[in-house]
Every structure is written in structure tokens, then in C-alpha cells.
Amino acid sequence: MSVESVKDKLWRKCGTSVNSMSLELYDDTNTKVAALTDNSRPLGFYSPLQGYRLHVIDLDPSSVTSGGWLEDTSLVEKYTISEEEYSKRDGTFRKFKEKVLSQNPSAVENKLSNNYMEDLCSNITVGDRCEVDPGAKRGVVKYVGQAESIAPGFWVGIQYDEPLGKHNGIVKGVRYFECPPLHGAMVRPDKVKVGDYPERDPFEEDEI
Q1: Using one digit for the tens of pLDDT, what is the confidence trace for 10-24?
Q2: Domain 118-194 falls in which CATH fold?
């Protein structure tokens, strides 16, 4: 497959046009290997290996990615409301909580036991391939057990195949497993299905 063909497939995935796309190849240590500047060359010319990644740079100045609009949330104006105005509103979660507490003061007490969902972990083992809902995100099980820094009960630590997670295996200062940044997640076992869930090919033909 030529570099141009790779760009065409990436365009269908990320929206950056072929003519506005610059590609760079990074190895598994996050070191830049090459800039894929020749569209006519085959991808194999740059010797990509398992674990390498392609970095897409959008050169279109009018693109929504320009200036960090997809990464820097400080650029997005946030809706704010004062405590006084919020307290005046009906139908808010605060009003609902106050109503529940007035009717049943014990309603919000912690009802989770230390063995919450332990039974659902019986068929989940570290190293299992899995799919996590919602989103059908795939990865590998890296941890099964309690996580006191999060909440009572049992949790499953997942290393996603893609950077769809929230951390690198450390949650609230506690390391539960090792994984690359933004590939880790801690989820309840009822969200995890283990089995034959191979890593998806990012270049497979599918509907966009």
C-alpha cells in the first residue's frame, strides 16, 4: 500500500484531507522514525514494525484541529451559574437529593460491600482478551480485584488497544497495573466480556 493510499484510509477515519495531511512514523518508545513525505512510496519502505504508530498532522489552517481546539478545553467557553441562581432552580439534582434525604435520611449511605460483584470476576483472569461496554472497546485484562482508592467492591483493570482510557494504570495515586498513558481504565466486572476479541485492524474497511 502506498503512503497516499494510507492517507486516503486515514482521511476516512479522521477527516483530514489527503492534501492537508502530513504523516510521521513513531516506534514503540515514542521516538520519531521517519516523516512519510513521499506519497508514491509504499508504506513498507519506512519499515514499520508491530507497535509502531502513525501520527497525523493536519496542515489545514481552517481545520477544527487548528490551534488545539480538539485538545485544549480551556479554549471552549463554559456555561457557568452562581450558587444562588442554581439554588433557586427547580428540577435540579440538588433539589432531588434534598427531597430524598428528607424522606429517607439513610438513602444515600454507602450500601456497597467489600465483595460487591466479586462473583462476576470468577471467569475473568489477568491476560484475557476482552470487550468493554459501553462502546465495545477492546483490550486485555491487567488487574482483577478490589480498588479501595476508587470505591468498595471488585474492579477490573483494562489496557485498551487504543488510547481510549483515562490513565496509565495509576488511579488516585495507587498503581494497579502497568500500561501506556491513556490506555488504562478501571471498570466494574459487569461491563467486561472476556473471550475471542482480537485487536481490531484500524485500516479494515467499514462504514464511516
Answers
A1: 888 877 888 989 999
A2: SH3 type barrels. (2.30.30)
SS3 state of residue 25: strand
91 vs 17: CA distance, rounded Å: 45
CATH topology of domain 3-58: Ubiquitin-like (UB roll) (3.10.20)
Q: CB neighbours of 6 closer than 8 A, spacing ≥ 6?
A: 23, 36, 43, 54, 203
Task: Identify which of 120, 197, 180 has the alpha carbon closest to the alpha carbon of residue 156.
Answer: 120
pTM score of the predicted model: 0.50
In the chain, CATH 3.10.20.90 covers 3-58
Query: How far apart, in whole angstroms, are the C-alpha atoms of residue 138 and residue 172?
Result: 24
Per the CB < 8 A criterion, the answer to whether 142 and 158 are in contact is yes
